[in-house]
């Protein structure tokens, strides 16, 4: 597959990139090299290879998912401009 200058112009337009006509041959060549590299990647045999999210196998730290009030509601509400009965008070926006 080969990208022509007209196709490179269209790709630049779709990507909202301003490319002067003098730079279109270089852009087309660059896009062609990217496509060639992608064709090379498709030739790699990946049967039996597990997908991975990183280069080193790591297990994330896990904790119990427990709902709490933070343990310090008075400290949280101390910064509120208006707090009533243990809640943030906000202006009514829907009638």
UniProtKB/TrEMBL annotation:
Assigned protein family: Belongs to the GatC family.
Keyword Transmembrane: no
SUPFAM superfamilies referenced in this protein's UniProt entry, alphabetically: Glu-tRNAGln amidotransferase C subunit
Functional summary from the UniProt entry: Allows the formation of correctly charged Asn-tRNA(Asn) or Gln-tRNA(Gln) through the transamidation of misacylated Asp-tRNA(Asn) or Glu-tRNA(Gln) in organisms which lack either or both of asparaginyl-tRNA or glutaminyl-tRNA synthetases. The reaction takes place in the presence of glutamine and ATP through an activated phospho-Asp-tRNA(Asn) or phospho-Glu-tRNA(Gln).
GO biological process: glutaminyl-tRNAGln biosynthesis via transamidation; regulation of translational fidelity; translation
Catalysed reactions listed for this entry: L-aspartyl-tRNA(Asn) + L-glutamine + ATP + H2O = L-asparaginyl-tRNA(Asn) + L-glutamate + ADP + phosphate + 2 H(+); L-glutamyl-tRNA(Gln) + L-glutamine + ATP + H2O = L-glutaminyl-tRNA(Gln) + L-glutamate + ADP + phosphate + H(+)
Natural source organism: Paracoccus isoporae
Keywords carried by this UniProt record: ATP-binding, Ligase, Nucleotide-binding, Protein biosynthesis, Transferase
Protein EC: 6.3.5.-
Oligomer and partners: Heterotrimer of A, B and C subunits.
GO molecular-function terms, A-Z: asparaginyl-tRNA synthase (glutamine-hydrolyzing) activity; ATP binding; glutaminyl-tRNA synthase (glutamine-hydrolyzing) activity; transferase activity
Name this polypeptide is given: Aspartyl/glutamyl-tRNA(Asn/Gln) amidotransferase subunit C
């Amino acid at each position: 597959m080969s990208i022509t200058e007209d196709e490179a112009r269209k790709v630049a337009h779709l990507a909202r990139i301003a490319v002067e006509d003098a730079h279109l041959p270089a852009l087309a060549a660059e896009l062609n090299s990217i496509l060639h590299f992608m064709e090379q990647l498709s030739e790699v045999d990946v049967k039996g290879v597990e997908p991975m999210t990183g280069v080193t196998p790591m297990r994330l730290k896990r904790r119990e998912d427990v709902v709490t009030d933070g343990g310090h509601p008075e400290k949280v509400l101390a910064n509120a401009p208006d707090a009533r009965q243990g809640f943030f008070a906000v202006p009514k926006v829907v009638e």
